[in-house]
Design goal:
Elements: H1 5-18, E1 51-53, E2 67-71, E3 80-86, H2 95-101, E4 108-109, E5 112-113, H3 130-151, E6 155-159, H4 173-189, E7 193-197, H5 203-208, E8 213-217, H6 225-231, E9 235-239, H7 242-253, E10 262-267, E11 281-283
Parallel strand pairs: 1-2, 2-3, 3-6, 6-7, 7-8, 8-9, 9-10
Antiparallel strand pairs: 4-5, 10-11
Length: 284
Amino acid sequence: MRATRVAAAVAAVVLLAGCGTSAPDVTPDVASDAAPDVPPDVTLPPPGAPFEYQLGGADAPDAATQVVVRDATAPPAGRYDVCYVNGFQSQPGDTDRLLRATPELVLHDDGVPVRDPAWPDEVLLDVSTPALRDRLAAELIGPLVDRCAAAGYDAVEVDNLDSWTRAHGLLDDDDAVAFTALLVERAHARGLAYAQKNAVDVTARVRAAGADLVVAEDCARWDECAAYADAYPVVLDVEYDADAFAAVCATQRDPTTALPGLSVVLRDLDVLPRGADDAVHGTC
């Protein structure tokens, strides 16, 4: 299912952890002291606001929920609404059409499209040159951002920022940050806030490019929340591990240790709607 792309990748990380493999040793960028101004037509959610992560299917949010993240194919919930867009890779249902119609926008290695190893029905977009980045922003991802704005969303969450890490060395973090800058500009022009998705090691540069908030996964589990909170006024964190969730909730309940702007939820790996048998929706 398309909405579980990120969750399944997290599942792979959890599986590796169970086999004795630790999280990668990542040194985040040092956040700049000069945060970019929020454009006048862009609004942010309240720092620390209760939120829900509904990528696996939209359902009615709790009364106390102030922020809802949904897939671009779903309507906004009527709260502060964040629209999920897969911005650096193809959508599974669109991969074949993309390869037929505009194969030059897809990253190739010796003539073979580069696929996400965790999601082989997704191919990486080729953000390696300014010309390709301009085309992708204008022809493919920019229109998705426009659709989020037209639907009434308040912000856009652009996933797979870290796709350069699975690009066979054909892309790097500079390419990813440069493409992000184009998407930030597009989002702001449509009145949308822009949320960085994961990739803590490029946080300072993405923030400097104008991103407004973060949607992070397992930042407590991998000890990344403070790096995000140092850079952004709003951090929406989705935890998939119950122990990590309990620990960060305890930290947030203590005023002496709480990170400013951090909101945390516990979700099941498939981010299922509440009515599903294995759905998990926890808040603190």
